[in-house]
Amino acid sequence: MNQEDGQTDGTALATFAAGCFWGVEDSFRKVKGVRDVTAGYTGGTAPAPTYEMVCSNGTGHAEAVRVEYDPSVVSYGQLLEAFWNMHDPTQLDRQGPDIGSQYRSVVFYHDSEQRRLAEESRQKLETSGRHRRSVVTRIEPAGDFWPAEEYHQRHFEKNRLRRG
Q1: What is the CATH number of the domain that holds 23?
Q2: Domain enclosing residue 90, as ranges
Q3: Whole-angstrom distance, CA of residue 88 vs CA of residue 56
Q4: DSSP letter string over 100-145?
Q5: DSSP state of 10
Q6: Is 2 a domain residue?
């Protein structure tokens, strides 16, 4: 897998941060054409951060998801639309009750085309009148991505199974 350009054999990568990664991961898993979603940390400075480190707000990382998808089934533009719909992109460094820079809204692009599409998509949303406040979502280059601890992976799915 070549994470530099976000491409794998027949698949591509996209990385998003939109608050707590549990709900974001669950939402992307429901998108047709998404093959896998990994909850993790990116956008910070510390190598191999843990959940506790990220929550301390000292690493600069965001809770994020890495989405592996089949571009012949779902486009990057469709993933962006899903991203905009699953959170409030006007909230700075928070989503609902979760407050802190680790919950910021970011599109992490893997190549220049993703960057262009993300910027166009954000501008379209900003001028649509859909939100009263300005969109504060950042668009940044994808860097190192650190998968979160196993208990964070498929969190909602595991809890639905436990409740029966």
Answers
A1: 3.30.1060.10
A2: 7-163
A3: 23
A4: SGGG-EEEEESSHHHHHHHHHHHHHHHHTTS-SSPP--EEEE---E
A5: T
A6: no
- In the block, residue with structure tokens 């956008």: 43
Contact 15, 145 (CB under 8 A): yes
What's the number of domains the chain is made of?
A: 1
Is residue 16 within 8 A of residue 83, CB to CB? The reply is yes
- Percentage of residues of the chain with pLDDT beyond 90: 81
pLDDT tens string 48-83: 999 999 999 889 999 999 999 999 999 999 999 999
Active site residues: 20
Whether the pLDDT of residue 4 is over 70: the answer is no
Residue 143 lies in a domain: yes
3-class SS of residue 43: coil
Query: From the CB of residue 113, how many other CB atoms can be counted at a distance below 10 Å?
Result: 12
What sign does the dihedral 113-115-119-121 (CA atoms) show? positive
- Is 1 within a domain? no
Asked, for residue 140, whether it belongs to a domain, the answer is: yes
Give bridge partners of residue 68 from the DSSP assignment: 13, 36
